[in-house]
């Protein structure tokens, strides 16, 4: 009962960094806690969006939100006039040159007397950038309407055009390991063989308005996968064959791949808590957790050790339009009415009353088109103790 093909709609939240200062005299050092001041961030939400760095994810914030000093923020421009692009961004009394994306670390010195940082940008006309790449290693395409067309090495492309980079002719014993722009590391995920959507701008170019895109190759490390197969199983989805491959305990698997650890048995009221190499791994789904085999995260030991424990289940109210959706309990086929309270781990099924195929929306996720969907009650899908189910 795995819904592994889905589109995630939530984007990401925030953690502040806590700073400590060492002070003292030659005979003795003491640790002094520094109180971080909250700074209000004010901006025009029609012209930009702001995201706050939480460490392992980003969370969108609204204008007027107060954040502690040291918080990393990322701004994206939006609803730009045709053929124009940001030139300079101002953060209070701080000015930086950036186009579509501007990053800052909140500093109280940027703020006014009211401890507010006002954010704005100025505009300029777009320019053409030269796209340079090795045609033996890369296929580069630009978006025109709803399709992508191949471009040539050295072609001139306007800023704000969407391009796609695809690594080609990769030797069978190698993997992509890091992308570069003009010889410096690019902010693309290092294992990706395709960079699907890049809105080009001077942010990516050198002083000659050239974007020279390339990637590095490496022989993948083999990672040992350790887990208790009485509680779970591990598998990997091979997109080239559209099939799942089982990975047994103690087997090795190459870095750069995503693997899945799955419950063997779902029990009402028992919620899985996953750990990998001693660290809790959050999952947005009840019955499995996915894990990317990133050697830089795994370390020189070259293994993952997966643990599984449980916490007690919480109760949530399940709501849906009963004129459009029928809900039954998997265990006994009994009917579940809208507004019923169910404990986590309860397996249920939703089905359209007229049998039509639809895209299901549960919490913040949308699932592939079908006329019914199996579901396990889980806190990650709840908002204020309510799990809303609908379709489109």
TrEMBL record:
Signal peptide limits: 1-21
Keywords: Signal
Keyword Signal: yes
Name of the protein this chain belongs to: Uncharacterized protein
